[in-house]
Amino acid sequence: QHRCSHINSSICLNRLSSCVKNAVKALSTSNQHINKTQQCKMLPGLVSSQAQLCRTNLELMQTIVQAAREVKKTCQKTFADMRWNCSSIEAPKYLPDLERGTRESAFVYALSAAAISHTIARACTTGDLKLCTCGPIPGDTPEPGYRWGGCADNLHYGLLVGSKFSDAPMKMKKKSGSHANKLMHLHNSEVGRQVLKDALVMKCKCHGVSGSCSIRTCWRGLQDLKEIAMDLKAKYLSATKVVHRPMGTRKQLVPKDIDIRPVRENELVYLQSSPDFCTRNEKLGSVGTQERQCNKTSSGSDSCDLMCCGRGYNPYTEKVVERCHCKYHWCCYVTCKKCERTVERYVCK
């Protein structure tokens, strides 16, 4: 049975199934009268500060498990049109593309840090965490016809606790891993949290006679994680390669090709170039694109030419059942028939 070497901002995504299994097994006893210290010992790989958080707020660990699931699902959807499609997160062992300080590692750490704080902030709103409640009411006065109310996502608490948990392994002096990699992971995790801060928007609910919306009750709420992932994907595509070199009295990360400026706070950074992910190479963490579906009419990253790396593709047909001939009935429902059609799809050779 695999055991996670650490639970950090990537939340053991490389061995997620094993970690979640162990965590859920431990947390399933949380309603029984068992010593909290013993329960937290059952979770593999916690560093001392993470174990302390576990002991003081056991419900937090279930939230971490939920965040891990969200990262895996969201990453796969966000990169479904790319050669790298978060396959490392599915792998039963840690693949090198998330170990070597690549831009894929940068994205996963950023998304993971954002997801932990996002899930904690939402858990405060739903009452799943005992040590927090709704976010504070904004101090500014809303426009006429608007009023503050509802239950805001507690972003402040999510960021505070999430960063403590996510960053703990990278801040331990005795923890394995190069100093450069730790600096990279800490930086990218903070970028993820910054994108999360920018995702706090005003949400409103209408009130009034017959839906007139004469008054709106509003609160600060977070966008869905998929929106945050898309912002981070844009940063992934424009990520900056850095080197670890002396700057003043200590070593810092600086842009490799334009080291006349410091690393910007809002850009993802990486240390090692990625493979092209065209063919299987376990040493580089590439599973290849053979048998991946491609889009014959696209000119983007999901096109058959780019996805298949020039190897060509094979067509196949598939029957699809869809709703059709829909009719609106007064008042108020819609009826549809089911239609079957044959579509042609393509997979890489």
UniProtKB/TrEMBL annotation:
<dbReference type="GO" id="GO:0048513">
    <property type="term" value="P:animal organ development"/>
</dbReference>
<keyword id="KW-0879">Wnt signaling pathway</keyword>
<dbReference type="InterPro" id="IPR043158">
    <property type="entry name" value="Wnt_C"/>
</dbReference>
<dbReference type="GO" id="GO:0060070">
    <property type="term" value="P:canonical Wnt signaling pathway"/>
</dbReference>
<comment type="similarity">
    <text>Belongs to the Wnt family.</text>
</comment>
<keyword id="KW-1015">Disulfide bond</keyword>
<keyword id="KW-0964">Secreted</keyword>
<dbReference type="GO" id="GO:0045165">
    <property type="term" value="P:cell fate commitment"/>
</dbReference>
<keyword id="KW-0732">Signal</keyword>
<dbReference type="Pfam" id="PF00110">
    <property type="entry name" value="wnt"/>
</dbReference>
<dbReference type="InterPro" id="IPR018161">
    <property type="entry name" value="Wnt_CS"/>
</dbReference>
<keyword id="KW-0449">Lipoprotein</keyword>
<keyword id="KW-0217">Developmental protein</keyword>
<keyword id="KW-0272">Extracellular matrix</keyword>
<dbReference type="GO" id="GO:0005125">
    <property type="term" value="F:cytokine activity"/>
</dbReference>
<dbReference type="GO" id="GO:0005109">
    <property type="term" value="F:frizzled binding"/>
</dbReference>
<dbReference type="GO" id="GO:0030182">
    <property type="term" value="P:neuron differentiation"/>
</dbReference>
<comment type="function">
    <text>Ligand for members of the frizzled family of seven transmembrane receptors.</text>
</comment>
<protein>
    <recommendedName>
        <fullName>Protein Wnt</fullName>
    </recommendedName>
</protein>
<dbReference type="GO" id="GO:0005615">
    <property type="term" value="C:extracellular space"/>
</dbReference>
<keyword id="KW-0325">Glycoprotein</keyword>
<dbReference type="InterPro" id="IPR005817">
    <property type="entry name" value="Wnt"/>
</dbReference>
